[in-house]
Amino acid sequence: MENEIQLRTESPIAILAQRLANIKQRLTKYKPIAGEILHEIDSVIDMMEGFERYADECTSLESQQLSNLNKITMQTDWNRIFIEKKSKVKLMTQMMSSKVSGQLLKMLVSISRSKEILELGLFSGYSALAMAEGLPEDGNLISCEIDPYAADFARQYLDTTSYGKKIQIRVGDALNLLDDFAFEGKSFDFIFIDAKKTEYKKYIDKIVDKQLIDQRSIICVDNVFMKGACFSNAEKQTKGSEAVKKMNQLLKSEKFFTVMIPIRDGMTIAKLR
Ligand SMILES: C[S@@+](CC[C@H](N)C(=O)[O-])C[C@H]1O[C@@H](n2cnc3c(N)ncnc32)[C@H](O)[C@@H]1O
């Protein structure tokens, strides 16, 4: 179980648990360390590892169809698919939302009674399916994906579920597709942003400028911690983390009502004031 979370997680706290375990190993190699210090380090690691695991254990079970998609996604050799040039993007299993994130999205869609959902970043379709499960009978979801291989993979699986017909996939760059949606006069009750990190702030700017949302719409954004780089200057900053920090600043401005949730790699829920 621990291994599974370590492999899948992008959560800063789980990353820290791994780093602390490495430090402990190195410490014991160089010097005899007092047993009580090692015990203290072990108990810190145990608490850090328990953080995600306990949230997972105390969250409702995912549906069988989500569980199957999770398994299929985990069993797929995405690296080989990229090396064989079948996918344009280097896709990775850890891109997929966790069970807790998926259930949170489903819960938010359900309690907000959202009917029109937009997702930026589909990958294998896990978060799309989780959100679709929260939709009413007449609800719809559009998901944008730049990689045709990922889009086909998700389409094939989603069509085996009863939610496939509610989910439309648009292949292309999310930023360009937002222009198309504005041109088509679309507006959304719920938008989940999980595509290109360097464009996060541009997504929000465009969604607001093009009036793709109204005062009641909910915006949900994943990876707002960027594995800790957003809040730790000791971490290497990347173009992605700089862009996400700018978006985080925008979302905490007066214009929005925003809550940042420390779930996995951080998820923000925001709406216009
Ligand atoms: C983190 S994954 C999405 C995971 C999915 N939402 C889930 O939780 O299961 C990000 C996806 O965005 C796609 N992507 C990257 N850049 C994009 C862009 N500019 N426009 C649309 N999709 C993009 C990637 O190919 C990848 O499949």
Q: How would you describe this structure to a colleague?
A:
This protein is an alpha/beta fold and 273 residues long. The protein folds into 2 domains: 2-57; 64-272, Rossmann fold, CATH 3.40.50. 48% of the residues lie in helices and 14% in strands. It is built from 11 helices and 7 strands. The chain has helices at 2-8, 12-30, 35-57, 64-75, 78-83, 99-111, 126-133, 148-158, 174-183, 200-209, 239-251; strands at residues 116-120, 140-145, 167-171, 190-193, 218-222, 256-261, 267-272. Strands 3-2-1-4-5-7-6 form a 7-stranded mixed beta sheet, with helices on both faces. α7 links the parallel β1 and β2. α6 packs parallel to α7 (126-133). It is globular and about 70 Å long. The relative contact order is 0.11. The model is unreliable at 1-7 (pLDDT under 50). The structure holds S-adenosylmethionine. S-adenosylmethionine is lined by residues 89, 91, 95-97, 121-123, 126-127, 144-147, 150, 173-174, 194-196. S-adenosylmethionine binds at residues 89, 91, 95-97, 121-123, 126-127, 144-147, 150, 173-174, 194-196.
What order do the helices and strands come in, and which of them pair?
Elements: H1 2-8, H2 12-30, H3 35-57, H4 64-75, H5 78-83, H6 99-111, E1 116-120, H7 126-133, E2 140-145, H8 148-158, E3 167-171, H9 174-183, E4 190-193, H10 200-209, E5 218-222, H11 239-251, E6 256-261, E7 267-272
Parallel strand pairs: 1-2, 1-4, 2-3, 4-5
Antiparallel strand pairs: 5-7, 6-7
Bound molecules: S-adenosylmethionine (SAM).
S-adenosylmethionine binds near residues 123, 147, 173 and 195.
